[in-house]
Amino acid sequence: MPAPLREREARVALLLSLVGLADHAAQRPGELSGGQQQRVALARALANRPALLLADEPTGQLDAETGLEVMELLRAVVRSEGVTALVAAHDNTLLTLADRVLELDDGVVREAG
């Protein structure tokens, strides 16, 4: 059963605030930048309070600076929400933000390094 409307609205307001988009709540997706759209996607992914967040190349369509900002935000938000995030990425500069890094090489998963 869905949460009551007031609770859902409060959750949306909280998440938009967490991702820095509280002032953009009335905008349509086409009116947002790529980085803002990624932030909305993060807020939507967290809306139902998941225990695990899977993100496949969440910064793949962003420039390096915006991608780093989105990943820093992802890290901060999942920590504040108590969520585990599993992020697949090819950008090695993002590895510094990870608590743990695994590599997939020819079907074998192992610790990086």
Can you offer a commentary on this structure?
Strand 1 (52-56), helix 3 and strand 2 (84-88) form a beta-alpha-beta unit. The protein starts with a helix and ends with a strand. The protein is of the alpha+beta class. It has helices at residues 5-18, 34-46, 64-81, and strands at residues 52-56, 84-88, 102-105, 108-111. It is globular and about 45 Å long. It has a single domain, classed as P-loop containing nucleotide triphosphate hydrolases (Rossmann fold, 3-Layer(aba) Sandwich). Helix 2 runs parallel beside helix 3. The longest helix has 18 residues, at 64-81. The chain has a two-stranded parallel ribbon with strand order 1-2. Helix content is 40%, strand content 16%. The protein contains three helices and four strands, in the order ααβαβββ.
Features:
ABC_transpr_LolD-like, 113 residues, two-stranded parallel ribbon, globular, 3 helices, ABC transporter domain-containing protein
What's the short version?
With 113 residues, the protein is of the alpha+beta class.
